[in-house]
Amino acid sequence: MHNSNRVIRRDERYDNKILRLNETLFSNANGYIGVRGTLEEGVPADFSTMRGMYLAGVYETIPMKQAESLCNLIEEKQTMLNVADTQSIDLYICGERFDMGTGELIKNQRILDMDGGFTSREIIWKSPLGNTVKIVTKRIAHLAVPQLFTIEYSVTSLDFDGEIVFDSWHIADVKNYSDPTDPRLASESPSYLNVVSSEVVGDSTICVSKTGVSGISIASASAHLLLGEDDHIEVCDNDNDKRLCSYIKAHICQDQEIRLVKFCSFSDSLRCQDPKNDALMVLNDALKKAGTDGKGLMDLYQDQSNILKDFWQHSGMEIMGDEDLNLSMSFNMYQLFCSAPRTPGYSMAAKGLTGEGYEGHYFWDTEMYALPFFTLTDTDLAKNILHFRYKTLDKAKENAALLGHKKGALYPWRTITGQECSGYFPSGTAAYHINGAVSYAIVQYYLTTGDKDYILKEGAEILIETSRLWLDTGNYDRKGNFVINEVTGPDEYTCMVDNNFYTNCMAAHGMKWTIKLLEKYSDTAEIISLKQRLCLTDKELSDIKKAADNIYLPYDEELGINPQDDSFLQKPIWDLEATPKEEFPLLLHYHPLHLYRYQVCKQADTVLAHFLFPESADKTTQEKSFRYYEKITTHDSSLSTCVFSMQASRLGLYDEAVSYLGDSAKLDLLNLHGNSSDGVHTANMGGSYMAFVFGFGGVRITEEGLSFNPFLPGTVTGYSFKFGYFGRLLQLSINEKEIVVTLISGDEISFKHGEKTYTITGGEKCIIKR
After folding, report:
1. What pLDDT, in 10s, does the model give residues 617-626?
2. One of 229, 458, 492, 623 is an active-site residue; which one?
3. pLDDT per position as a tens digit, 308-329
4. 492 is catalytic
5. Secondary structure of 54-86 in the HEC alphabet?
């Protein structure tokens, strides 16, 4: 693995395990289309492949029958769809089908170019009959045209003259992937799409499918351009009504290159009224831009490069002295950018658009871990994600009512449409801290951007309804403390507890900021109207303030730590050292009730609360808590090591911070959890960014403003990163001798380092000696 202008190159063995992982790592996405990096020619039947193409937010509703139908338990869910397969291309060389499992594989390399925004395969293959070809593919999910996906398939003869044939498929009859042994994946694999039509229109193929329950129509269209050979035959044929094949034939001479460009477009009825015509229009526009000679292809490729150039100019990070970490962080940031919804009102799935892990559901992960990256680098994408919670606020109110709440909104643990999709409520619906993640994200977005308009139009209403939920959930104990019982915190190995420290911190924060922002903008017409529409009384506001001021935060004087919850320290400690490695992750090997009876954590819980809310405990308590939970945390969740890294940085435990960040940043590229083949871990990618920027960089954005407290970790000799703050673009750089803060663009700004305040104007640098 090496980094050259943000390029990943990997020599690939023809091995099922490696291919499955590379399907994820070399996937293509643009916020609307996601395409797994599967081989165009497919794999043998005994290989396990997740051959998928996905459209953001497109889903089917399916049954989720409960073993016991208790009151208001969820009995249906949404799942993401594998839509029509347009990436399949079979190549025949003088009658022999290209198959890497036969003949001699002389070269086989995968490439991800994060500056150009494409993936590529470079292959040299000698057929069983002795004909040698060089094959290069280039795949792009276009950022400038989110409905467009292209494959450029180049064939060069190295030692023969003869006929080559492309069988380019457009397959409407597809199924989702499933694995009944893994709770993170779907347990069934039916075909959720009914093929409505599959036809040839001119030189293009067009397929339309529709879901049976959600009623969503999906259209896909494809067409081809053959370059390097004038005399060719292209015939579109219909195979069994659900599989269209375009046959492209050409004669090739030794040292000649022939290129086939496949254009694929997609549309759906969630976004337009006539997906079929919309897909055809996008396809025809792309063909027109490319031109019959293919020269316009460079314009399409340049559009991709320009968008990514702008992205890196606003978010670029460079790490000196640790090439692997530098490449890993670039990969994580690139994947986040490609996974973010380009349409307001959609969110980011746990696996982005790279695989079917967690069935394409949105979790609290997005707001807590991924959103900070966009808040600092692309506020438009951040607002798209935030708008999803406003768009689904009414469904959150319905969800709260199902759980017996008379007021307020409770966001679902996992969802696509805003309805709860969690069938196991102890570690799902009971995780009320999802509300806290949403409110925290709103406040951090506001503190970073000063976007008053967003607060008045959307944010304030969400804050009010989530605060109402906290008020309705909690109660006062005999000592006058506001307590919150029977909830689950971030640690899913400890469920249904009283006074989860993290949840209570989140609740207090959300309620305090609700009061703060309503008071700040109390005279605006928007807030006056909002209070009237929601029947929000002064008495209710007073109750919210009182609950926030009197929230109960558990503390154990003997250990000097904040217990994770009221009963946590009463339980025996799980012996992690005596647990065989093959029994991790524990959730796949132990009954949930068994796990719940021990002091064992799947992920950071109280440690995360301390990082987000440093005022919740003094530094001594935070450090003792860090050491305590460090010993009993398995990090079975990908959301864990990044949190330990950022909190270690905050506490000055720099060696631990470096170690934990490495585990987090390199998780997918090195497949550290062994499940990256199901899709990337977008939240961990956001978490590794947080660990670097907020941890190593010491960036803090609070009500008091912006501050830095950077340090130089481990073998890293220097680093720099860019980020936005109140419409300004800044860069923080550090090396062994100095810290440099540059205001690249925007108005004058002040910030703190240590106890000193500095002020710089546009284009200026502030140099602080170390």
Report:
1. 999 999 999 9
2. 492
3. 999 999 999 999 999 999 999 9
4. yes
5. EECCCEEEEECCCCCCCCCCCCEEEEECCCCEC
